[in-house]
Task: inverse folding
């Protein structure tokens, strides 16, 4: 069985690839902020818009359905008021009296009246009903024996007794004394008529006595009302586009009024059972049916509208809403883009400056305009760069000084072995010729050369440094015929303390050159050293000519300044002492230094203040400071 | 990957939506559904709309009832034509027979088994509930009676006094005639002649001699052509067509008669107390006293008429006080058969007879109380006297056209009496017609 290795699947590779892409892809803060703002802003705008639209759509739909419901109510009320009128019309026969024969039951019971006369009298009564309402087409009274009295508007038509008899049988309700409402039908019992009518019928009781008033039917009164009545009230109401009005007889489960001939609407009848009085509309098979009852009847006024028609009506509003949302989103994106760009500009400036500094361009500075976190960062960066620059400069200069000193020394190291050997030959020659002074001078020189060349170290023991000064002084003493002497007053315990190389010789040389040389009589250069307050203090004194206060100030200025002295005349001397001064401060810091005091005609004192570095600490100190 | 993340919820949503819009039929409710479905009223009330005062009295009564018993809805309707009973029958023919209704002919409806039994407790409220075989089938609402309304101003001016016998009455008429004042007007909506005078003579000449006359007529023992009846008819005809009656007043309306009386052209009218109210309404000064507040006679009394009232005396001086019911309430059998409706109907009837409500109706109709608890109401002195006299008089309810007489005879009788009073037929003819009509009405009722 092959072992499934997840790490070998393509999916894993894809994941890895995406992960690396993600890791590697640089996405600027600006892009992120724009994206975030768009997501937050546009998304919330969208959601809000959708919510408002939905709520609005819901209420709009309710509003429209309510409007349609009101339409059905209005139609229902109109029909109801007609029926109220018809109620009165059908009761008319109970109060109608013919002038000669009294009430209808009296007329019918009167055996002295011929049947033609009776028919004429009753037709008169029916005619009175006929002219009560313009929509009444026919009024007829059918007696149980099949006899018919009828009144109609001109042109008068013949009554088809067979058809009307059938109609009577179909619609006759034996025990009802209430008004009946019959659906719209073709009134074809009048020959040749094309009128469509709905009919009100009522059994007319014999009211001669109170018993017969409930038990004996004189005849059945029919009032045919033109469909135009319904057409007109429906046309008067403003229907929604695409909606259709039907009237359905709930009990008979058939259309009482359906002006849309030819359309199969059996569906509607099958929904009837759902249309109950607690609700005002149903939605079935994508169509809305809004309905209301015609008060006091089984008739239901139904307005049908397909849901897409309903929705069409508020589509414009939806489009508008979407357009507004879209417009707002675009405006939002543009505004966010520029805002983010503007607000991230300082950050990008910082990033640019950082990059430039990174590339070594330490003169780069960030312009600070605003006063916020960014400006705080910018100021910090500026300050940091400045500090860095200053620091680099200082370290660099110390290095240069060190090198300069070494070069100064090395200048004398040309062909050292050749020099040693030569010097040795010369010294032997001098010994051979009993020239002791020359031999000693050469020995001093040779010692100095050895010190400089053999020890390419930064730190040396105080002892070696003083030995070097002694070698130098051997030559000076002989040169100046023992006029100058060197006094070294250093305790043996501090002789092993470590000091930077070549810090005494330049000062001693200065003392000889500038102090003692111009002095008449004997000169002394004294070197003292002691440990005071955790510091090694070395004093080099001479009793030479000393310096004028101006000169002293100038020298001190030169020492303090970071610049290298370029004065031609005093170049050497200046290099010597300045070099020493700079090196001490560079290596040990500001608390260690050289102090010069000089009094004209008395002499000059150069005081070193150095850290106490014992031989075993030397390595450690070197690591720490160099 | 990312696309899939968006696609999945979308697909789920779509599935949900399609699942929701399945085949099922949704029903919906619209908030402002016009749900004020017209509930069937607890009680339907139907009453005669012949008299506007009566209509407003009953409407006031009903609205007071609805206010006090908001739990019962009352549908009130009154007749529009002039034949109330015919309309009541038509109501039945329309299958809209009312629950509580005014009734003119309780026995006819009782025979047709249309009336519900009224509880004894309610029946006790009135002096004489209408009974049939021990069942209280209807309740009289207020009583009325015929009497002479006369102008006291004329009587005072000429020193005339109220007659104590029929002979004195005729003398009084002669005196007035001599003074140039027509003594009597008939007609008006009170049916002064057709119901008032005819019965006065019937009671005076026939009933006093034979108190069972109407029953006897039903059993066929007597006839309108008997001598005592023809005498009564003759006396009636003589008075109506004689010189004491304002010419053609039988065809006049109330207002015309009242204006004659106010103008002091006519001194007397035989009518019901309702006429008093009509006079007061037409001539409010009629209620002004003829005395100053100190009891002295007014010097310049310009009031034209102050109505007075007396019941007509018979030949021997006995006052003849007809006891007529102004209105009768009944409840349908259907109504009394349904406990909830019966409760509402009982409540309504009790409410009607409760003194404070009853008083208002009486006051409006100037009716005589028919309750066991005598009810007095604020009315001018004359009216108070009418009520008191009525209460303590020997009232006779055995007049022609009362509940015992066959139903349709009442209307038919008026026709003949009217003709007689207009002198268009002879007494003999009238008597014969009345007999025929009685027989016919009996036959009709038997059917």
Result:
């Amino acid at each position: 069985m092959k072992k499934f290795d997840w790490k070998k699947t393509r999916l894993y590779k894809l994941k890895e690839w995406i992960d690396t892409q993600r890791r590697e892809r640089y996405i600027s803060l600006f892009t992120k902020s724009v994206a975030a703002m768009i997501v937050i802003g546009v998304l919330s705008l969208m959601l809000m818009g959708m919510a408002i639209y939905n709520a609005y759509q819901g209420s709009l739909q309710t509003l429209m359905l309510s409007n349609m419901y009101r339409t059905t109510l209005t139609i229902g009320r109109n029909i109801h008021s007609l029926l109220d009128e018809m109620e009165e019309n059908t009761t008319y026969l109970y109060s109608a009296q013919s002038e000669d024969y009294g009430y209808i039951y009296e007329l019918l019971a009167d055996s002295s009246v011929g049947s033609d006369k009776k028919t004429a009298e009753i037709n008169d009564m029916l005619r009175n009903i006929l002219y009560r309402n313009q929509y009444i087409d026919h009024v007829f009274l059918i007696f149980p024996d099949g006899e018919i009295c009828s009144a109609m508007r001109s042109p008068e038509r013949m009554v088809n007794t067979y058809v009307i008899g059938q109609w009577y049988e179909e619609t006759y309700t034996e025990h009802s004394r209430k008004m009946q409402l019959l659906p719209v039908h073709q009134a074809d019992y009048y020959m040749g008529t094309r009128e469509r009518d709905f009919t009100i019928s009522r059994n007319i009781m014999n009211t001669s006595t109170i018993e017969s008033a409930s038990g004996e039917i004189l005849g059945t009164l029919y009032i045919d009302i033109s469909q135009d009545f319904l057409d007109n009230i429906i046309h008067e109401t403003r229907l929604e586009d695409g909606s259709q009005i039907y009237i359905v007889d709930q009990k008979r489960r058939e259309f009482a009024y359906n002006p849309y001939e030819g359309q199969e609407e059996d569906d509607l009848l099958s929904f009837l059972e759902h249309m109950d009085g607690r609700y005002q509309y149903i939605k079935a098979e994508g169509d809305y049916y809004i309905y209301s009852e015609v008060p006091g009847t089984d008739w239901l006024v139904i307005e049908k509208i397909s849901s897409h028609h309903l929705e069409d009506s508020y589509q414009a509003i939806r489009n508008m809403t979407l357009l507004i949302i879209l417009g707002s989103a675009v405006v939002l994106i543009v505004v966010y883009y520029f805002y983010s760009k503007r607000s991230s500009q300082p950050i990008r400036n910082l990033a640019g400056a950082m990059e430039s500094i990174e590339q070594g361009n330490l003169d780069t500075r960030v312009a600070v305009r605003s006063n916020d976190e960014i400006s705080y960062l910018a100021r910090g960066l500026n300050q940091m760069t400045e500090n860095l620059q200053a620091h680099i400069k200082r370290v660099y200069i110390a290095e240069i000084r060190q090198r300069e000193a070494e070069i100064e020394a090395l200048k004398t190291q040309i062909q050292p072995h050749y020099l040693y050997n030569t010097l040795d030959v010369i010294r032997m020659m001098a010994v051979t010729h009993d020239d002791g002074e020359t031999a000693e001078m050469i020995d001093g020189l040779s010692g100095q050369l050895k010190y400089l060349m053999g020890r390419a170290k930064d730190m040396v023991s105080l002892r070696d440094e003083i030995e070097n000064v002694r070698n130098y002084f051997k030559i000076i003493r002989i040169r100046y015929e023992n006029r100058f002497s060197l006094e070294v007053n250093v305790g043996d315990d501090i002789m092993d303390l470590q000091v930077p190389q070549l810090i005494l010789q330049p000062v001693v040389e200065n003392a000889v050159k500038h102090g003692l040389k111009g002095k008449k009589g004997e000169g002394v250069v004294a070197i003292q050293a002691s440990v005071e307050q955790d510091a090694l203090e070395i004093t080099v004194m001479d009793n030479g000519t000393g310096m004028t206060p101006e000169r002293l100030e100038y020298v001190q200025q030169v020492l303090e300044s970071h610049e290298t002295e370029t004065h031609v005349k005093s170049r050497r001397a200046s290099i010597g002492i300045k070099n020493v001064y700079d090196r001490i401060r560079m290596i040990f810091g500001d608390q260690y230094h050289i102090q010069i005091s000089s009094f004209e005609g008395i002499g000059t004192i150069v005081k070193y203040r150095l850290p106490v570095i014992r031989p075993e600490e030397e390595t450690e100190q070197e690591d720490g400071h160099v | 990957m990312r696309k899939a993340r968006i696609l999945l919820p979308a697909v789920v949503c779509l599935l949900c939506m399609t699942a929701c819009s399945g085949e099922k039929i949704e029903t919906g409710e619209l908030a402002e559904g016009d749900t004020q479905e017209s509930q069937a009223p607890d009680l339907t009330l139907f009453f005669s709309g012949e008299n506007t005062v009566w209509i407003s009295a009953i409407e006031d009564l009903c609205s007071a009832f609805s206010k006090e018993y908001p739990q019962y809805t009352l549908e009130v309707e009154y007749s529009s034509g002039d034949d109330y009973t015919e309309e009541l029958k038509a109501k039945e023919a329309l299958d809209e027979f009312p629950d509580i209704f005014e009734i003119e002919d309780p026995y006819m409806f009782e025979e047709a088994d249309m009336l519900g039994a009224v509880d004894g407790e309610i029946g006790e409220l009135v002096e004489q509930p209408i009974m049939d075989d021990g069942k209280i089938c209807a309740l009289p609402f207020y009583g009325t009676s015929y009497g002479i309304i006369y102008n006291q101003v004329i009587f005072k001016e000429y020193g005339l006094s109220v007659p104590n016998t029929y002979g004195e009455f005729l003398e009084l008429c002669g005196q007035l005639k001599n003074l140039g004042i027509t003594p009597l007007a008939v007609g008006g909506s009170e049916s002064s002649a057709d119901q008032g005078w005819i019965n006065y003579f019937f009671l005076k000449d026939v009933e006093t001699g034979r108190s069972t006359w109407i029953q006897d007529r039903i059993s066929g023992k007597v006839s309108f052509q008997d001598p005592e009846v023809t005498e009564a008819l003759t006396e009636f005809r003589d008075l109506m067509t004689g010189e004491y009656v304002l010419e053609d007043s039988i065809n006049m309306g109330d207002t015309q008669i009242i204006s004659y009386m106010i103008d002091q052209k006519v001194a007397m009218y035989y009518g019901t107390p309702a006429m008093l109210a009509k006079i007061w309404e037409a001539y409010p000064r009629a209620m002004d006293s003829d005395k100053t507040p100190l009891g002295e006679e007014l010097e310049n009394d310009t009031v034209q008429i102050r109505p007075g009232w007396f019941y007509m005396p018979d030949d021997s001086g006995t006052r003849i006080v007809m006891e007529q019911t102004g209105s009768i309430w009944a409840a349908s059998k259907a109504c009394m058969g349904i406990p909830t409706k019966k409760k509402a109907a009982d409540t309504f009837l009790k409410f009607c007879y409760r003194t404070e409500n009853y008083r208002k109706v009486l006051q409006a109709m100037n009716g005589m109380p028919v309750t066991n608890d005598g009810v007095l109401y604020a009315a001018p002195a004359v009216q108070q006297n009418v009520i008191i006299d009525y209460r303590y008089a020997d009232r006779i309810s055995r007049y022609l056209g009362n509940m015992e007489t066959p139903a349709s005879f009442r209307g038919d009788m008026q026709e003949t009496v009217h003709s007689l009073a207009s002198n268009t037929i002879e007494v003999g003819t009238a008597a014969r017609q009345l007999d025929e009509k009685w027989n016919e009405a009996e036959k009709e009722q038997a059917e």
Remarks:
- The longest strand of chain A covers residues 196-205.
